Amino acid sequence: xxxxxxLLMDAHDALAEGSWKTAVALATEAQMLKPGSMEAxxxxxxxxxxxGLFAEASDVLDKAEVLSPDDPLIVTNRGICTFExxxxxxxxxxxxxxxxxxxxxxDAHYYLGLVLERQGDWVxxxxxxxxxxxxxxxxxxxxxxxxxxxxxxxxxxxxxxLPPEAIQLLENITIEVQLLPDEEDLLAFATPMSPxxxxxxxxxxxxxxxxxxxxxxxxxxxxxxxxxLKDQIRITIQYExxxx
Length: 244
Prior knowledge:
Distance between the termini: 48 Å
CATH class of the largest domain: Mainly Alpha
Strand content: 5-15%
């Protein structure tokens, strides 16, 4: 095995182990050895995406797209990056194009579902989620189904299971439930927050914590059943309470 192939293998292993920074470094080195390598470019982009660096990943995908403009994987990854950067209309166009190229792209169906959900097309969004599950059941399980009242009840139950120090913090902080994060809130920072965030803390005009907002649909997608959803709600509340 030559040095280039070894670098690619090591980068794949690093990604599988969650070491995205190492994968970025190895993929970059592989590109230096073989400029224009599609596999190295895609590895580099995937590693950046794993690290949440979606703008940087888009720059790498630009180079890959020049080499293969109609590659459904490249187009899908660009659509994912565009979604995570909160450019939802553009993400929809890109993901729909990816599926025109190859209707078997589970990631494209899933992320198109996320876009459609934000745009209020719940029926079509659920169809896309179901298709992603059909194509790749290991990666995309269906969201836990429940009505708003059931979700609120689960939040109340999860709150009672918080540790004493977290419960004490709730004396001056309320818990609110919102279906999905508002675009304005996601774009309030220099780097947009992921539309898939599970919760966020809000502050009053004096900078004091005012509430913890839970995002119902995102939480429902993170669990396999109601028990796991309850645990995720508790973990999210505790994290938001105990972090700045």
